[in-house]
Amino acid sequence: MGCCDAPGLMPIEDAMEKMLSRIQPIQTTQRLPLPDALGYVLAEDILSPINVPPFDNSAMDGYAVRRSELALGQPLTVAGKSFAGQPFDGEWPAMSCVRIMTGAQIPPGCDAVVMQEQASVTNAGVTFSVRDVPHNDNIRPTGDDIHHNDVVLSRGARLTPRDIPMIATLGVSQITVYQKPKVAFFSTGDELKPLGEPLQAGQIYDSNRYGIKPLIENFGCEAIDLGAIPDCPQTLKATFEKAQSLADVVVTSGGVSVGEADYTKDILEQLGEIGFWKLAIKPGKPFAFGSLQNAWFCGLPGNPVSAVLTMYVLVQPMLAKLAGHTEWQAPQSIPATTRTTFKKAPGRTDYQRGIYSIENGQFFVETTGNQSSGAFRSMSLANCFVVLERERGRVEAGETVNIQLFNATLY
Ligand code: AMP
Ligand code: MG
Questions:
Q1: Residue among 186, 188, 192 whose CB has most ligand 1 atoms within 8 A, to mutate
Q2: Is residue 138 classed exposed, middle or buried when 0-12, 13-18 and 19+ CB atoms within 10 A define those classes?
Q3: Residue 94 alpha carbon to ligand 2 centre in Å
Q4: Which ligand is nearest to the CA of 190?
Q5: Is 301 in the pocket of ligand 1 (CB under 6 A)?
Q6: Does the CB atom of residue 187 touch ligand 1 within 6 A?
Q7: Rounded alpha-carbon distances, angstroms, from residue 149 to 56, 236, 370
Q8: 303 lines ligand 1 (CB under 6 A)
Q9: H/E run at residue 237
């Protein structure tokens, strides 16, 4: 460990840059019914075909009036009603008002709505406790929210639960989106046992696929689970071939650390081109990236924390680019004061797992304990990464560190 760890290891920023510079967004588009489009990336600008609201309407339950008549302070008779969806279309004689409800169309000639709390119904008509109200008071004018032809959402936006009702407001029922990147993934290792079966000597449960899948799906990509594959070159090669025929990206876990890396590398070199990288990050050093004939390849380390961490930190930005999600932003760093010590040796960028809290507007962070890359509890307990710079050594309580709050894909 220590500073001797760094030579030959690629800084994470360089690795990101190398990956992203090679990847081109998927151009294939499809038309989808609006309710099915959640999580897809828009392939078109959404222009409003209408004004919103489409007509002047009342913001209150009350009475539509003409201000010049209201100002006289006389009772006004009720000429009729305007309810939501049932506009008033009768005669509106002088010295009268129209009973109106929220969302109902404003009758022509009306220049204010008086809320019902300021009105009382008497035998002589409606009397009002106000005489002088502002022009267009309690009226929501046509196009107040959105004008016809306004760009409401831009190409490259990933559709959130807030975007779908926004588009519905415009009456748009079908939209054009980019096809979601397809990500095929599998675990490798003779030691892996399916969940629900008893462990034999030397076996562990295959947890990595259960960490990788939600990170793919929460990120708006399609996940194709190819299972757990034993460390057998023929089976591995066949699985790689199948994976690249099904997907845009092939993600594996395990088999890239010293020992197993050699035959993984052999297989990959037969099927494509590999920039087998060792990154200057901890955990996650044995991360690999390359291209197969028909897909990109990301080889995650087998240790469960490393697998989820490299998927989140390195693969997600790549998926964002592939998906055409131009508005995606990497998690921001926030300074926080440490509440505990953090063990660290200079040499690599550490992504330690922490728990942050906010007190009086200040961020504080404590360690989740055991930071072994095999100890998944450190991820499960955490709500942020504590990103410790390469040169940095042990951190004492009370020092300032940078934290990255987990984004929605880890929640
Ligand atoms: P490897 O990268 O294959 O050398 O694996 C490194 C460590 O991660 C070993 O302790 C493996 O047993 C463990 N590991 C590999 N794959 C998985 C998996 N799918 N689920 C849980 N642990 C794994
Ligand atoms: Mg292995």
A1: 192
A2: buried
A3: 87
A4: 2
A5: yes
A6: yes
A7: 18, 53, 56
A8: yes
A9: helix 233-246
Would you say the CB of residue 204 lies under 6 angstroms from ligand 1?
Answer: yes
Q: What is the spatial distance between Cα 253 and Cα 275, in angstroms, rounded to a whole number?
A: 16
Which helix (DSSP H) or strand (DSSP E) does residue 297 occupy? strand 296-300
Give the per-residue pLDDT at 203. Answer: 98
How many angstroms separate the CA atoms of 153 and 148, rounded? 14
207 ligand 1 Cβ < 6 A: yes
Res 6: pLDDT: 66
254 lines ligand 1 (CB under 6 A): yes
Task: Indicate the burial class of 292 (C-beta count within 10 angstroms; 0-12, 13-18, 19 or more).
Answer: buried
Buried b (16+ CB within 10 A) or exposed e, 56-78: bbbebbbbbbbbeebeeeebbee
Q: Are 184 and 250 in contact (CB under 8 A)?
A: yes
Model confidence, pTM: 0.92
Site to probe by mutation for ligand 1, drawn from 210, 236, 300, 303 as the one with most ligand atoms within 8 Å of Cβ, is 303
What the chain holds in terms of domains, given with CATH numbers, is: 12-28+180-322 (3.40.980.10), 32-49+149-178 (3.90.105.10), 57-140 (2.170.190.11), 333-410 (2.40.340.10)
Q: What is the pLDDT of residue 258?
A: 80
What parts of the chain have a pLDDT lower than 50?
1-4
Q: Which of 41, 39, 47, 30 shows the shortest CA–CA distance to 161?
A: 39
Residue 145, CA distances (Å) to 5, 96, 166, 173 in order: 57, 30, 11, 20
Which among 351, 344, 278 is positioned nearest to 313, based on CA atoms?
351
Does ligand 1 have an atom closer than 6 angstroms to the CB of 304? yes
Structure tokens at 103: 């969302």
